[in-house]
């Protein structure tokens, strides 16, 4: 797709979503929402925020499981990069913080970005696996709204495809990564070299123990997210049951990587309220709870991202400008670290 067409399409979608959000905002009772936020229990909100932070810690450990074999053995680096990326996701659209995580680890550990990107791809894959496991089980055993119930066949099919991919990775033929030799002169050659490093790294880090660890960590991360949502509803004195909380969590994450607004603000509230209304709960009270959940996800996490990686957060824009101006990427400088597979 041509860049101009892609930009026009993104702009059109963004405008459409903004129109939807404006309409949504005119039909809610902001006074009632503000009262619900003010009356919430502060100690319970603090506890929920800590649980949410714990879920991000779990995701950092999950990524570290795949980073170790390529030479990024520091769990502290994975932790800093994960919080920095999450902080940037809160202020950027389209999950821009994920690309930032790759750049951060690549430059800090002096490992080519193709190899770091491969580990992040696996980490993100297990995030999806955890989501579709929860969606398939919830749609099978719980009474969910019709929209989520209808998603059950799709969830099962996608989960089966992902599991088949993981099995194939474990039973794959040996792949020899080609990294030696001079830098290719053409973009086609550079792309081929990048792809070789990416695929070779996935082959290197794929193993049964790592996949099992990543799956268990994914389940734990989603359980902590359910706890965060439920504790926030309790703090706001909002009668969400565990089933309705799971439904709301599934609904707000159904778009996954598609963040239409910074932090997905507005879209998140609309999806959460729709799930709550499906269970006969008050729409305005649900929006108040959704704002409280996002406040916990955005404010403390962004602050921690700045505290743990200030040199990256504040220089991210400058680095992107440097790269656009022709700065030589790490692959071209020959920065490549290969660690033995443990």
Mean pLDDT: 81
Q: Assess the beta-strand content as a share of residues.
A: under 5%
How many separate helices?
15
Number of domains: 1
Helix content: over 70%
Order of helices and strands: HHHHHHHHHHHHHHH
Main sheet, how many strands, which sense, barrel?
Answer: none
Q: How far apart are the first and last residues' alpha carbons, in Å?
A: 41 Å
Number of strands: 0
Structural class by helix and strand composition: mainly alpha
Taking pLDDT < 50 over at least 5 consecutive residues as the criterion, the unreliable ranges are: 320-342
Give the C-alpha Rg. Answer: 21 Å
Q: Which overall shape is indicated by the principal axes computed on the Cα atoms?
A: globular
Structural key phrases:
15 helices; 342 residues; mainly alpha; globular; 73% helix; 0% strand
């Amino acid at each position: 797709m041509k860049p101009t067409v892609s930009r026009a399409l993104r702009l059109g979608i963004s405008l459409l979503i903004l129109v939807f959000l404006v309409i949504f905002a005119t039909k809610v009772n902001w006074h009632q929402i503000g009262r619900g936020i003010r009356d919430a229990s502060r100690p319970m909100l603090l506890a929920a925020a800590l649980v949410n932070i714990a879920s991000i810690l779990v995701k950092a450990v999950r990524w570290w499981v795949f980073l170790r074999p390529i030479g990024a053995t520091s769990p502290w680096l994975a932790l800093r990069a994960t919080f920095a990326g999450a902080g940037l996701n809160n202020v950027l659209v389209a999950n821009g913080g994920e690309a930032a995580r790759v750049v951060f680890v690549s430059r800090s550990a002096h490992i080519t970005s193709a190899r770091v990107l491969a580990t992040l791809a696996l980490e993100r894959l297990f995030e999806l696996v955890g989501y579709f496991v929860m969606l398939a089980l919830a749609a099978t055993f719980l009474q969910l709204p019709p929209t989520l119930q209808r998603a059950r066949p799709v969830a099962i099919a996608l989960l089966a495809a992902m599991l088949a991919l993981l099995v194939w990775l474990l039973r794959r033929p040996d792949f020899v990564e080609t990294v030696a030799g001079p830098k290719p002169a053409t973009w086609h050659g550079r792309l081929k070299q990048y792809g070789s490093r990416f695929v070779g790294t996935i082959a290197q880090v794929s193993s049964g123990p790592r996949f099992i660890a990543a799956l268990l960590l994914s389940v734990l991360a989603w359980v902590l997210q359910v706890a965060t949502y439920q504790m926030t509803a309790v703090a706001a004195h909002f009668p969400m049951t565990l089933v309705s909380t799971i439904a709301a969590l599934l609904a707000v994450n159904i778009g996954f990587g598609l963040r239409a607004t910074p932090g997905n603000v507005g879209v998140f509230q609309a999806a959460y309220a729709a799930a709550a209304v499906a269970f006969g709960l008050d729409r305005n009270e649900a929006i108040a709870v959704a704002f409280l959940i996002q406040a916990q996800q955005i404010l403390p996490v962004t602050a921690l991202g700045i505290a743990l990686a200030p040199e990256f957060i504040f220089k991210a824009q400058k680095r992107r400008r440097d790269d656009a101006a022709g700065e030589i990427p790490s692959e071209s400088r020959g920065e490549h670290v290969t660690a033995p597979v443990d």
